[in-house]
Design a protein that fits this description.
Rossmann fold; 7-stranded mixed beta sheet; 17% strand; 7 strands; 13 helices; alpha/beta; single chain
């Protein structure tokens, strides 16, 4: 951690008379957090840069086992005292996330404004620790400042503004965005750059990337359900492509974020081939085999399942697809 980062945070905590004085203090839990506690049973949660402890105490009050991590001793004091007053327990850890040895997987990881205050030279270590901490089916929430208009400069001090596409690219391909929201602040001190947009991200693991063999098996299972023996069809085709192939643009839609999520961004016509080749290499299969399997899966003359106009999602078993995974 840079000396300047430390000076800024120590000066702020020395200045604050109470946790409410901290610039990042908030009374309500971070957006999406309450929804997650409604959707899933309590588990292990990691609050990275817990600050004043609002989110840690909120989660503990709902039965979660919370690890509140911060490199500032005063932040941990605030969190411990607020947890005591609320009658809940929180495990506080004084550490820098970029140097911390992750003790195991967490069902929920939360960053309410740490990344956007971090020196970019430490971003790689942050990302590595985050991915090590997040469970296979875990949820990751991030609050990060976003520019109010393209090219908006950062202030002389304070959080860095990064747009949505760059945030998604930073966590791709391992994580994919589930929900996004934004809140506008039109007038802030010039020291932090004036107005800004506060962006909230809800990420989950990209299982199509994490478990390619399982994805291919889900496609084969769907085809079998519709009477298509993919193994026999691929063997009969040999090295020859299955004709007719997919219509223009459909491969990009299938691979893109709206369906399988192998690629985190929408693609233009013709971009799918290179992305399919890269993913096939990661999956340990040949690009030709994957292309033929997807042709069987989506072709109007074959499986007719993942077609362009109206995919037959109700008859599909590819649970990694975005159209199905949250239903």
């Amino acid at each position: 951690m840079s000396t300047q980062e430390k000076k800024t945070f120590f000066a702020t905590y020395d200045w604050a008379k109470s946790w409410q004085d901290l610039p990042w203090a908030h009374e309500e839990p971070t957006l999406f957090l309450a929804e997650i506690t409604r959707q899933r049973p309590p588990g292990r949660a990691l609050d990275i840069g817990c600050g004043a402890g609002t989110d840690s105490v909120f989660l503990a009050s709902r039965g979660w086992r919370v690890t509140a991590l911060d490199f500032m001793p005063k932040a941990l004091e605030y969190t411990t005292e607020r947890a005591r007053k609320a009658g809940v327990g929180v495990d506080v850890v004084e550490a820098d996330i970029t140097e911390w040895q992750v003790p195991g997987a967490f069902d929920l990881v939360l960053d309410h404004g740490l990344l956007h205050n971090m020196d970019p030279v430490r971003h790689g270590a942050y990302r590595e620790r985050l991915l090590a901490a997040l469970a296979r089916d875990g949820d990751f929430l991030l609050l990060h400042w976003h520019p109010r208009f393209p090219g908006q400069a950062n202030g002389r001090m304070g959080p860095r503004r990064v747009d949505r596409d760059d945030i998604k690219a930073f966590f791709a391909p391992e994580l994919q965005e589930r929900f996004f929201a934004r809140e506008e602040f039109e007038d802030l001190p010039d020291l932090v750059g004036g107005g800004m947009t506060q962006a909230y991200y809800w990420f989950r693991r990209n299982l199509a990337r994490l478990e390619p063999a399982a994805l291919l098996e889900q496609i084969r299972s769907t085809l079998a359900r519709h009477g298509v023996d993919a193994t026999a069809a691929l063997a009969a085709a040999g090295a020859i492509p299955i004709e007719p192939g997919l219509p223009a643009g459909l491969l990009e839609r299938i691979l893109g974020p709206g369906r399988l999520g192998i690629v985190h961004r929408p693609m233009g016509p013709g971009e799918g081939d290179a992305e399919l080749t890269a993913w096939a290499g990661h999956a340990g299969v040949t690009p030709g085999e994957v292309r033929k399997l997807l042709t069987l899966f989506a072709g109007e003359e074959h499986g007719k399942i993942c077609v362009a106009a109206a995919p037959r999602c109700e008859q599909c078993e590819v649970r990694f697809c975005k159209r199905l995974r949250y239903r």
